[in-house]
Amino acid sequence: MVKSKYSVTFWINLSLSILFLIGLFSVVALGKINLFENSKKIPLPNWLFFLLLLILVCYLLYSTLKAAPVYIISDSKIQKKRLFRKPLIITEDVIEEIIMFTRSKSMGLETITSSIKLKNKAVLKIPNISYSNSSKLRVSLKNYFFKKIKPYFSENKKANDDYFEEKFAGNFLTSFNTLLLFGFIIGLSVSTYKTLELHPERSLIMLIPIAIFYFAFGFQMYFFIIRDNSLIIKNHFLPWISKKYDLKEIIIILRKSVYKQSDALTIITGDLQIKSFGAGSLKERHWEQLMEKFKSIGIQISLN
Question: Which of 18, 51, 274, 278 is deepest in the core (most CB within 10 A)?
């Protein structure tokens, strides 16, 4: 039996919604908003404006919780615990099919989702982004409900074990992420120049936001090397990071476009693990060459 566990992304979304709610009530409690006076800037009574904000924040909170119900998967049933509703118990006889990998959105973000289609046309979704143990949930589905799983990849890798080394990376110095980082550092330096001139001891404090931005952009700056029978993943900004995948263990490779982020390479392995690596330095031609290389090796580059 496997029970779903919430991911860091889920807790961040939930925490932000709760903080918005607390902040809204704090502003009223401190007397910053008088609910019984008309707002000069907004042609609505303050209490009505507050009510609309409250409804919006509560909706965000509810949507976050609704997007990630608790799943318990065992050898005979799937249990879905829902907010303010009775648990839903699904047995094998009511399942039409299980699609292991589909593209969808959860909490406003694109992710890979496992979909359980029922005979009554209802669909249960298990988004990868919402659960920290999503791979274990997928393995449980495969073990307990194997007959219901729709084939999700084609076994057509070439027998050739000797692939020439090839690197797929753009010029990271001219990438959007690098230019944005340099722009932030220059803007921060210009805006704080006079303050630092008067208080030079505060210079070290300025390193904190720079470090935050550096690591934030750094995790969008991976590049890829195919060497012999392996896919090696390195990082332009964080050179100590190096990950290696045996090409024989990879069943699906996808290019994922993320809103306001660099395109990412999503890797699905035979043990049903899913990992994504943002590659901000890669241009369109690099992506085309990379995906064509995987295709020539025999790795599936789309979902069935």
Answer: 278
Give the contacts of 49 (CB within 8 A, at least 6 positions apart).
Answer: 39, 42
How many other C-beta atoms are found inside a 10 Å radius of the C-beta of residue 46? Answer: 16
Tell the CATH topology of 166-297.
Answer: PH-domain like (2.30.29)
| Contact (Cβ atoms closer than 8 angstroms) between residue 217 and residue 280 | yes
- Do the domains 70-148 and 166-297 sit in the same CATH topology, yes or no? yes
List the end-to-end C-alpha distance of the chain, in Å, as a whole number. Answer: 28
**Per-domain residue ranges of the chain:** 2-66, 70-148, 166-297
Nearest partner of 124 among 136, 106, 109, 110, judged by Cα? 106
Topology annotation, domain 70-148: PH-domain like (2.30.29)
Q: Can you list the alpha helix ranges (DSSP code H) found in the chain?
A: 8-29, 46-66, 134-144, 176-191, 193-198, 203-218, 284-297
pLDDT at 237 over 90: yes
Q: What are phi and psi of 191, to 5 degrees?
A: -75, -25
pTM over 0.85: no
- Residue ranges with strand state E in 107-176: 109-118, 123-127, 166-168
